[in-house]
Amino acid sequence: MKAINHSNKKTSIIIIYIIIGLACYLIILFILLSFFINGFTDKFGNYGDYINGFAMPIITLFGVFMAYKAFLSQSEQLKLQQKEALKQRIENIFFQLLNCYTNIVSNMRCEDNNIIINGKEYFEKLYNKLICLYSEEDHLSEDKTKLLMAWRRLNDVEKGQLSHYYRNLYQIFKWVYQQRENIPMEEQEELIDLIKAQLSTYEISLLYFNIEYFGANDFKEILNFYNFFPSDGESIIQQFKNHVALFEKKR
User: Would you say 70 and 167 are in contact if contact means Cβ atoms under 8 Å apart?
Assistant: First the structure.
């Protein structure tokens, strides 16, 4: 916007100089011709016709130029308005999806010793339950297989809530990804960071496990496109193993 305003200002200055130059030129021409035809009043009328015939094409061209400039300015303004309207629409839908996510999280719940756990604490409880289920798979030797079996058992119990939660979360990321031709990468990353800021550490870890074993392939591709998981998830897995080791040590 600043670049366009600067360009318009520069163009206006040039036009002013052109008008001043033409005016000076016509005045000087008038004085010179008046000097040479002084005393020839019968020819002075022809001189006026000469000036009129000389100036009118210039004035006409200047008018055409100003009309064309106004047309370009209106076109630029229209494009900016359309771009701003599209950006506003993208952001409105994004925040509607984000608000829907917030409502879903607030309604997620489970019981622990007759105590209702809901909201963000629900995911902490889910994460700790996954650790417990993982430790029970000690008959398996491969870590990835143990994690897969543990996550399947957890998903069987919480599938009703988790599937609804992940479908909504997927739609938020998908919406941002679909607008990559309409908004610059910097603004896309800002929206992704805004989503990430809403997720707890437990949610991010569980999201990683979900897309690795149950998530749609395009969900994983979208998250990888924005480098959502640090170190491609290695830090999440290592942190999970550290928590498992701590749990088994206390057991």
Answer: no
